[in-house]
């Protein structure tokens, strides 16, 4: 049976105000978002939902569904990103965070890691000045200041491109126009990462519109200085639903999320009432969840001067092996401190 997925790129082009449009015909924005990222299997979607989306995009249901074409992940060697919400090659990824939660550090680290690789990074500056970008944009291979300049640079470059820009261009409609021009010129080698320096995107039903990947940052992790503060439950990717994810990764991710979901519930009890309120039958779950959470913290190369810790890169295969070891209890002898801000095990 062919793999099927939603044509997210078509939805982005055809329905720029998808949240409002979806609500107007009785489709919940969360449903659309979950279909785009693969959180809801497209094969299980209601026919009326697909027909409604096709109507909004002024296309047929067949045009709305992509069959057989596999998505590819871009391995960043950042454990939390690669494991929970892989970056989709040629797709659009949105960072969902409030200011101060580390989204710019993640972007800086990604640009640092892509230096000298097969990927060229292009950063389109926001329409307004943001002092917090100082020290971040310098890591991009190219910095542009307008949509026209961005188009010229993207059209000029060959090979794979990581294009980073701000939500302000979505609000103005200029990003949609840019994407239309790129499609018209048959330029498809661009992977887009969107950020929102205002933090308002956190409160939206469908952050940035249709996305292949959502990196949602977690205030609790950020408060406890466990970076990158990637939320292990809410961060997701359309690549997850068996598109280009081996079966082992898929099932390990499910097991890890199940453990961390329960651990977070237990942790809320500990914060309020203390560790003694955790039932003996749940203590193993709590301690294992604590270790797994600590493991997904990671030293970044761009932060070495500030933390004094050497940056670490961990391959996807090593991350899977490490997570499996933690889940199966092989790392129970290790303390949480020993697992925090380490690379591989």
Automatic annotation (TrEMBL):
Keyword ATP-binding: yes
Keyword Phosphoprotein: no
Cellular component aspect of the GO annotation: proton-transporting ATP synthase complex
InterPro entries: ATP-synt_VA_C, ATPase_a/bsu_AS, ATPase_alpha/beta_chains, ATPase_F1/V1_b/a_C, P-loop_NTPase
One MF annotation (Gene Ontology) recorded for this entry: ATP binding
Domain of life of the source: Bacteria
Chief localisation class: membrane
Keywords tagged on the record: ATP synthesis, ATP-binding, CF(1), Ion transport, Membrane, Nucleotide-binding, Translocase, Transport
Pfam families in the cross-refs: ATP-synt_VA_C
Cell compartment(s), UniProt: Membrane
Residue span, ATP synthase A/B type C-terminal domain: 245-321
Similarity remark: Belongs to the ATPase alpha/beta chains family.
Name of the protein in its database record: ATP synthase A/B type C-terminal domain-containing protein
Species for this entry: Psychrobacillus lasiicapitis
